[in-house]
Every structure is written in C-alpha cells, then in structure tokens.
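User: Okay, second chain of the day. Same drill as before: sequence in, structure tokens out.
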Amino acid sequence: MTGGTAAGAAVRRAAVLGSPVAHSLSPVLHRAAYAAMGLDSWTYDAIECREDGLAALLDGLGPEWAGLSLTMPLKRVALDLADSVSDLAVAVGGANTIVLRDGRRHADNTDVHGIETALTEAGLKAPQSALVLGGGATAASALAALARLGTAEAVLAARSPERAAGAAEVGERFGLAVRVVALDRVTAHLPAELVVSTLPGRAADAFAGPVAASGAALFDVVYAPWPTVLAAAVERAGGTVVGGFAMLLHQAVRQVALMTGREDVPVAAMRAAGEAELARRA
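Assistant: Same drill. Structure tokens below.
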C-alpha cells in the first residue's frame, strides 16, 4: 500500500471523520505528506460523522480506502467496529486511527505517540511530576504518554472527579500513580514539573497566573487560537511551552506511516503546511 506516481496508479483514499470536523487541520497535514512522498494518486478528505453513523459509513467503504483518522466523538465506538485493535488502543480505551487493509479494519492510537514526541522534541523527556487538567480521552492519552516517558506520579484535576475515573485508570494501567482532584483545587497541587492542559478553548484561562508563577513547563493541547492565555502567561514567565499543534503533527505523522506502509514520512513538509494554514486562519 505505497501508492505511486506512475500513470494509471490506483487511487487510494483516506479521510478524517468526526463531528464537528470542518475545522480539522488533518487534511492539510496528510495532503502535504502525500505530495512530498510522491503519492499523487492519494486523496484525503474531511467527512462529518457521528457515533451512530460510523458503522454504516465503514460498511460502505470500497477497496480503494486506505485509512481513517478519527476525532471526537468516534474514538471509543471505533474499538467495537474494528476487526483488530492494537494493545495501545485497548489500554487507552480509544482509537484515533483505522487502517484498512485486505478487507479488514485495524484500530490504533497515535495520540499517545503524538504527545510523547511533542514533549520529547521540547526537551521534556521524563518529567517526574505532572498536573493534568481535564479528565477526558485526551487526558487519558496524556497520562499514558507520561507513564511511557518515565513520569512516576500525576495529579488529574477535573470538573467532575467521578467522570475522570476512567482516565485515571488508564494512567494506572501504564504504571502511573494518579490522584484525582477537583479542578477548583488546582493551585493546591502546584508546583509540578509539568502542567498538561487538555481543557478546551479558554477553560484554562483562570489558571494562567498560578501555573506561570509556579515555574512549571506547560503542554497545552489547544492549537488554535494560539497562544492561549495560559500559554502566553507561562511563556512570559520564561517557562517551556508546548502547543497542541506539535501533538497534532506527530500523531498525523504516525498515521501516514500506518496508512501508507512507509516510514519515510516528511515531517518538515507537514509541519510547514500546518503552520502556514494556521497562520492563514489567524
């Protein structure tokens, strides 16, 4: 499944599914990869799809389909609709990737890889303590990534600690000691070496001052608009800041490798295309 540039090369299709999905940066990243890899017969689209529509959509895909990227709210239901699931996706409790090959659907998770690589790239290779804001699927992937990087313990701060129990269990499954607290108790758990915000939009604005003053490094999963109030505050205080674009980029790099079967994925070309698109939207 490597595609090609020869005349008459078979068309290969891929897409990102989710709801809402029109804002997704994935088409820009994947198309940039195909162009740089000479995969002229490959296409990548964005398709609106809700949980109750995923099964029918999958059943209707033809042999030209190579893979799918999945965003919310499809990451959990995808596990039940795949023929095989990677150990990582099972452990995290969600798949953001379906590779279609030989009539079978293989579900995988590249979010954890994206977070690991983004943090490592920024020099945050093994934070000893972490404070994670939010208790959803992205928080679960962040806890898994931190555990794989060697972090020993983390505090998980969520609006509803009861709902965050699933994410905490994921971290513990990877050997991380996780303590769940209410989000309004964040300041009591600073300083930490690394703060990870998986909160949407401006939900983390209220914590900008305390986090910046604590001297913690920050990984904020938001990538637009950027910088967030939280990221700007930490940056002004001289702290290390990693934005959500780095995670998005590296999870997409891994998806391209899985879907094409090739490892020569052009990270620089994908990064440049994504940054240019974000600048255009801003």
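The first strand starts at residue 12 and ends at 18.

User: Thanks, on to the next one.
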